[in-house]
Structure formats: structure tokens, C-alpha cells
Write a structure and sequence with these properties.
By secondary structure, this protein is mainly alpha-helical. Helices cover 58% and strands 6% of the residues. It contains four helices and two strands, in the order ααβαβα.
Length: 66
């Protein structure tokens, strides 16, 4: 939605996304083709941020921590 308010090039948005992701405890990768999400997943893995394949996998992992 921000792209409508403040248009930017795709690479600029990705840079912002990676900055936000660098502060996250985990990432949930939803199904579907997305070059940006693939780059974000690689970034997360390189920075020891767990990447979960969907919400169900994330919720299941959360239950294991209890």
C-alpha cells in the first residue's frame, strides 16, 4: 500500500524490506512465486533469522517452545 502513497523503484522497496527484516525474530514465507520474497528468505537465512514455510509451520513451532 505504501507504493501508492510514496512510489519507489522495486530495488528501493527491497532495501527497506531487508532493513525491517534485519530486526525481526522470524520470517513466514507464504506460498507463491515472488522474487522479492525469495531474496528476503535468503537474507533471513544468512542472518540466522528462522524462515517458516507458512503460518501453520510457524504456529506448530511456537507450540513446541512451550
Amino acid at each position: 500500500l505504501w507504493a501508492l502513497v510514496e512510489p519507489k523503484a522495486k530495488d528501493e522497496w527491497l532495501e527497506i524490506d531487508l532493513e525491517i527484516l534485519s530486526r525481526c525474530d522470524a520470517m513466514i514465507r507464504l506460498e507463491g512465486v515472488s522474487e522479492g520474497a525469495d531474496i528476503e528468505s535468503e537474507f533471513a537465512a544468512e542472518h540466522d533469522i528462522p524462515v517458516y514455510a507458512g503460518v501453520d509451520e510457524f504456529v506448530a513451532q511456537e507450540g513446541d517452545d512451550e
